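2024-03-11 09:14:02 INFO worker-7 job=invfold-0412 stage=load source=structure_tokens
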């Protein structure tokens, strides 16, 4: 699943931002109402964001009560979730996670999605990117994640770790033919060690890129999450050798403090 969509366990403090592979949007977690179990919160004064009506911001800001056994980092994370405008927007518009807006903004920037496409979504829990692809008119969407994903009409969703040896073959077996798009929000558990985390995210992006090269039809595109600083040389060389254009882009929906960005490869050469 996306690291946007995974609630951090109280016994883990992953550099302030939980994530999970294989998991597969910047430590954003589940949207309350899509699995969040903490109901103990109260409204208090405090700024929600810069600018705007200060009184309204104070009235709308929600602070999470301290809970026995909950780490301070988890409390801060949940409080951030409750006051995130993209979380609220996703709730109102019916998306399962705020990560949906990252794909929407990538599509707005590069004009990627179109009706009738076959799309593979790697690290798809809880399903925000699947929803975006289907709403854009995709004729077939196959998603995979190590976490269970609640069924979405029109999509085939597999619960399996994509890093397992047989996972790519299982995804291909579910496809009705070559894919028009491979989109990857795969993310590793972060350690807080910048170099280690960078190597892990690049390794997942490389795995997804090799799958895309094996799966895409000519003209198709590939998206993968990487960390700021961009992709490493080996990944970029692979993409430049197989695609007409390769770009990096950080959507506004990615939190400013998050190190994530996305590599977008367009025009698969086949």
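2024-03-11 09:14:09 INFO worker-7 stage=emit residues=270
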């Amino acid at each position: 699943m996306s690291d946007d969509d995974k609630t951090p366990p109280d016994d883990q403090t992953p550099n302030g931002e939980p994530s999970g592979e294989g998991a597969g949007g910047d430590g954003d977690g589940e949207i309350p109402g899509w699995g969040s179990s903490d109901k103990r919160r109260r409204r208090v004064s405090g700024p929600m964001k810069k600018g705007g009506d200060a009184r309204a911001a104070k009235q709308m800001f929600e602070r999470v009560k301290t809970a026995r056994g909950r780490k301070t980092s988890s409390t801060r994370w949940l409080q951030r979730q409750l006051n995130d405008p993209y979380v609220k927007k996703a709730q109102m518009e019916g998306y399962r996670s705020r990560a949906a807006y990252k794909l929407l903004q990538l599509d707005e920037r590069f004009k990627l999605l179109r009706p009738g496409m076959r799309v593979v979504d790697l690290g798809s829990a809880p399903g925000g990117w699947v929803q975006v692809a289907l709403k854009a008119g995709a004729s077939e969407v196959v998603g995979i994640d190590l976490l269970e994903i609640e069924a979405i009409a029109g999509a085939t969703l597999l619960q399996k770790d994509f890093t397992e040896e047989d996972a790519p073959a299982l995804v291909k077996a579910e496809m009705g033919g070559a894919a028009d798009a491979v989109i990857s929000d795969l993310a590793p558990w972060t350690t807080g060690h910048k170099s280690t985390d960078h190597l892990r995210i690049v390794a997942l992006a490389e795995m997804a890129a090799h799958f895309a090269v094996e799966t895409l039809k000519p003209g198709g595109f590939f998206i993968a999450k990487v960390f700021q600083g961009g992709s490493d040389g080996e990944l970029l060389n692979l993409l430049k050798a197989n695609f007409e254009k390769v770009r990096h882009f950080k959507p506004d929906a990615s939190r400013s403090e998050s190190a994530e960005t996305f590599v977008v490869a367009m025009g698969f050469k086949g």
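2024-03-11 09:14:09 INFO worker-7 stage=report msg="Residues 100-268 form a domain with the Rossmann fold fold (CATH 3.40.50.150)."
2024-03-11 09:14:10 INFO worker-7 job finished
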